[in-house]
Each structure stands twice: as structure tokens, then as C-alpha cells.
From TrEMBL:
Pfam families in the cross-refs: p450
Lineage of the organism: Bacteria, Bacillati, Actinomycetota, Actinomycetes, Kitasatosporales
Keywords on record: Heme, Iron, Metal-binding, Monooxygenase, Oxidoreductase
SUPFAM superfamilies: Cytochrome P450 (SSF48264)
Family matches, as PROSITE patterns: CYTOCHROME_P450
Coiled coil: none
Protein family according to the UniProt entry: Belongs to the cytochrome P450 family.
Protein name as catalogued: Cytochrome P450
């Protein structure tokens, strides 16, 4: 019953526990993460919840999270939502177990796809996709309509990863409804989340059948894309080329056809869903903080000058826009948790003994709001928290939107470049008008997204 935590009894839990169901009743299965945040506020920096016959330990205090970042004693744990994605993503990079040889193989083969050189190659494609977004927004504006922020950010980020990584065009901006790939993906993410709320998958039989259909659709899409590439011959050294053609520099080994399929799905999903949410939250905050928007825009005007489109280096120089993004990811890290397991018997932060294999979930949104780190106003949006001086004074391992260690996000630079570029372009082109009646509501499908966020636009100046 202790599940690898010999002193589990010392970890606080919610007051009312039901014999069979544990703490799950009263839990909202549509918003499990936000539910966990409520318990975190109630119970403190480490706590546990019981679901059915299992105990789950949650951690968010800065001291505990910093200790979990020690790669000599802890490693990624594939559990809960991530483990539930194994049927679709298998031993792809995100869902691979640490011991699976395909993790290191794919990591080494694909990492050069995220080098600075590779990123410079993606930049013109990212600009082209951003141009489709501004064309669409110009048309909405001309028609007197507000824009669907999460919907349009999802179109943008899907097209960006599809084009830069796979030379593929889903034609999202030509569609009025989401591409079926998106519908199937949202279906599998939502199903993976729901699996955590039942004692066994059989209880979700109908949803399970729907999920299998979604997975088949994702597989078919990916198989078509790979077949097309094999027929047409090499791309230009993009991710798909690396997956298909590149041998491991040390061992000469290549990815198997089955593993390529897993990686393509992994990158199409991991490569857009969280960036879309990050952009959406940032646009929400910009629309609510005109002073911040004005400062960010002044920076864009200064750094980009009269250039019609920014060069690669002109994006990295948008320091304040980047802080807006960081601050949005602080409050709403769109991949809101990651799991760590003990690789040896150890004591977490000198206080909580863990046996080898015991694991815990780090609740990033709470870590990012720990008042001991971020102050009494931690709930308040303020990009100056990421001013270099403030960053230097802060304890390490307190800002973790991209996870930690060897299994941290491989696409971090990709996401940051894309999102900073797009925020710069949008700030330069439009004034954002918030709907004063909108209250931020966050939907969950493993990832976070602002629900129903629409913004009004005004064209800022002609000719740009
Ligand atoms: C891993 C967040 C964008 C591909 C992760 C992890 C986090 C994360 C927290 C670690 C998960 C864990 O420990 O279980 C984010 C956020 C993004 C973003 C917040 C956007 C704002 C991207 C992009 C790509 C990508 C653009 C690809 C182009 C991956 C992959 C992994 C990963 C493949 C698994 C890495 C491994 O285990 O080797 N991401 N990510 N992500 N991410 Fe991202």
C-alpha cells in the first residue's frame, strides 16, 4: 500500500476519503489538473490523493521540485497521461521508457533537427505560415468579425510543424472546421486523460472504440505522409528525412518503419498542441494588459524597424516579447505536469524516503506560483519577473514549462522561436481588443487551452 513511499502516512491527503473510490468523487473529470491545483492550495507542497486503490503523490514546492531535478537520483517516469498515450505514440520520443533503446537512437538522430542551423532553415517557412494567419485575420477583420484565438493558433502551429518537419500542408486555413487530424488528436488526448478517472478501461468501452478509430485515422494520415515522401524522394534534410534516411552517427543504426510512424505522430502532436496553447494564453494576457502590449510593440518596432519581414536574428532580439511568453508559460504551462521516479532508494529533499521506482507528479502551474519563490503577488501577470536580473536572483529549477533533464522538451527552441515570431508579427499589425465580459476558463485535454477566447482586432497601420 505504501507504493515505494515508506513514510507515506506523513504526506497530507484530503480530509474526506471514500472507502472504494478514495478521493476521486468530487473530482471533476474534465478538469483534473485544475482540481489538483485546488488540493495543492489546501494541502501544501507535497500531498497525496487516492484513486480507487492507488495513492498518487503530487509535489509542487520549489525545494522538492529542485531536488527532483537531480538527474543522478531521479529520471522521467512514464505514468498516468503519458503512459495512456502509449497505444498511439508507442516508443516515440515522448512516451518511450528510459530503458528502451529507441529513445537514445531517435534522440541522437533527431537532435540535430533542432540545432541553430536547422532552426534558421525553418524560419522562412514559419514566416510563410504566419502570413496565412494574418491573411485570415485581415479577412475576419474586414468582415467585422472577432477571431477564434485557440482555433487559429492551432491551425498556425499545426501547419508550421507539418511544413517545417515533414514538408506537408494540411490546408488548415482553407477549412472552416478543424482538420480531421486535429479532431482525432483531441479525441485521443481527451481519452488518455479520461482513462485516469476510471479504475479500468472497460468502463469506457464506447469511448474506447472511438479512440481506436481516432488512432487508426492518425496512423493512416502518417502512413500516407511517409509513403508520399518515399515516392517523391528526399525533402531538404527536414525531420522526416532524418527519420527515414539518417543512421546513428555512432552505431550506424536506423529507425524502424514502425518507430518512424510513432515519431511522426509524436512530433505532429507534441510539436503544435502546447505551442498553440502558449500563444493563446499570451494573446489573452496581452489583450488584458495594454501597458504590456504597448511595451512589447515598441520593442518590435525598434528591433524590426521597416523590415517587411523579420530575419532570424531579429526574433531572438525580441527580449521583452519573450518575457511575455515566459510569463504566460509560468501561469499556464500548457504541458502542466511531468513525472519523476527515483532511480535508486533515496530521500526526497532530506525528508521523504522513496524506494527505487517510486514516483511523483510535479505540478508545474503550482511550482510556478510558489509564493516563497514568486512572492505574494504570484498570481499576477508581470513579464518583468523574467528580467535578467530577477532571473539571476531566483533559485534554479523554479521555472520548468519544458520539463527537466535528459527527457526535457527537444522542441523548446522551436516553440520559442515560432511563438516569439508570431507574437511580434501580430503586435506589429493589430491592436487586440479584449471582450470585457470574457472570464478566463481553461480546458484540459492533458494540455491546457483557454476556452472560448475570442479577440477583436484593429489594423494598426497601413502598408506593413
Ligand atoms: C517533451 C513541453 C513544444 C516535442 C516535453 C516535456 C514538456 C514539454 C514539459 C517533458 C515531458 C515529460 O517530462 O514527461 C512543451 C511545451 C511546448 C513544447 C510547453 C510549447 C510551448 C514542443 C515542440 C516540439 C516538442 C514544438 C517538437 C517540434 C517534444 C518531444 C518531447 C517533449 C519529442 C519528448 C522528449 C524526450 O523525452 O526525449 N515537452 N513542449 N515540444 N517535447 Fe515539448
Amino acid at each position: 500500500a505504501e507504493q515505494g513511499w515508506p513514510e507515506l502516512h506523513r504526506i497530507p491527503h484530503p480530509p474526506r476519503r471514500l472507502p472504494l473510490l478514495g478521493d476521486v468523487l468530487g473530482a471533476n473529470r474534465r478538469t483534473p489538473l485544475q482540481d489538483s491545483l485546488k488540493y495543492a492550495r489546501l494541502l501544501g507542497p507535497i500531498y497525496r490523493r487516492k484513486a480507487f486503490d492507488r495513492e498518487f503523490v503530487f509535489v509542487w514546492g520549489a525545494k522538492l521540485a529542485a531536488d527532483l531535478a537531480d538527474e543522478t537520483r531521479f529520471a522521467k517516469h512514464v505514468g498516468l497521461g503519458v503512459a495512456n498515450l502509449r497505444p498511439v505514440a508507442g516508443d516515440g520520443l515522448f512516451t518511450a521508457y528510459n530503458h528502451e533503446p529507441n529513445w537514445q537512437l531517435a534522440h541522437d538522430v533527431l537532435a540535430p533537427g533542432f540545432s541553430r542551423e536547422a532552426m534558421e532553415g525553418y524560419h522562412p517557412m514559419m514566416l510563410a505560415v504566419a502570413g496565412q494567419l494574418t491573411d485570415h485575420w485581415d479577412a475576419e477583420l474586414a468582415a467585422g468579425r472577432t477571431v477564434d484565438v485557440p482555433g487559429d493558433m492551432t491551425k498556425l502551429t499545426l501547419e508550421t510543424i507539418a511544413r517545417t518537419g515533414f514538408g506537408h500542408d494540411f490546408g488548415s486555413f482553407a477549412r472552416s472546421r478543424p482538420h480531421p487530424f486535429i479532431t482525432a488528436m483531441v479525441g485521443t488526448l481527451t481519452y488518455a486523460q479520461r482513462l485516469n478517472s476510471v479504475p479500468w478501461p472497460g468502463l469506457l468501452r464506447r469511448a474506447g472504440r472511438r479512440n481506436e478509430a481516432d488512432i487508426s485515422y492518425l496512423n493512416r494520415t502518417v502512413d500516407d505522409l511517409v509513403r508520399e515522401r518515399r515516392r517523391a524522394g528526399g525533402g531538404n534534410g527536414d525531420l522526416l528525412d532524418r527519420m527515414l534516411e539518417t543512421a546513428h552517427p555512432g552505431t550506424g543504426e536506423r529507425l524502424s518503419a514502425e518507430n518512424v510512424r510513432r515519431q511522426v505522430i509524436t512530433f505532429l502532436v507534441a510539436g503544435h498542441e502546447t505551442t498553440s496553447g502558449a500563444l493563446s494564453f499570451a494573446l489573452h494576457y496581452l489583450s488584458r494588459h495594454p501597458d504590456v502590449a504597448a511595451r512589447a510593440r515598441a520593442e518590435v518596432d525598434r528591433v524590426w524597424g521597416d523590415a517587411e519581414t523579420p530575419g532570424y536574428d531579429q526574433v531572438a532580439r525580441l527580449r521583452y516579447v519573450r518575457r511575455v511568453l515566459d510569463e504566460s508559460l509560468r501561469l499556464w504551462p500548457t504541458a502542466p505536469a511531468f513525472a519523476r521516479e527515483a532511480v535508486e532508494d533515496t530521500v526526497l529533499a532530506g525528508e521523504h524516503p522513496m524506494r527505487r521506482g517510486a514516483w511523483t507528479l510535479v505540478l508545474t502551474p503550482m511550482l510556478h506560483r510558489d509564493p516563497q519563490v514568486w512572492g505574494a503577488d504570484a498570481e499576477h501577470f508581470d513579464p518583468d519577473r523574467f528580467d535578467p536580473k530577477a532571473v539571476r536572483q531566483r533559485a534554479p529549477h523554479t521555472f520548468k514549462p519544458f520539463g527537466t533533464g535528459a527527457r526535457a522538451c527537444i522542441g523548446r527552441q522551436f516553440a520559442l522561436h515560432e511563438a516569439t515570431l508570431v507574437l511580434g508579427l501580430l503586435l506589429r499589425r493589430y491592436d487586440l481588443r479584449a471582450d470585457p465580459t470574457y472570464r478566463l476558463r481553461v480546458t484540459e485535454r492533458l494540455t491546457l487551452m483557454p476556452e472560448g477566447l475570442r479577440l477583436g482586432l484593429e489594423r494598426r497601420r497601413v502598408g506593413v
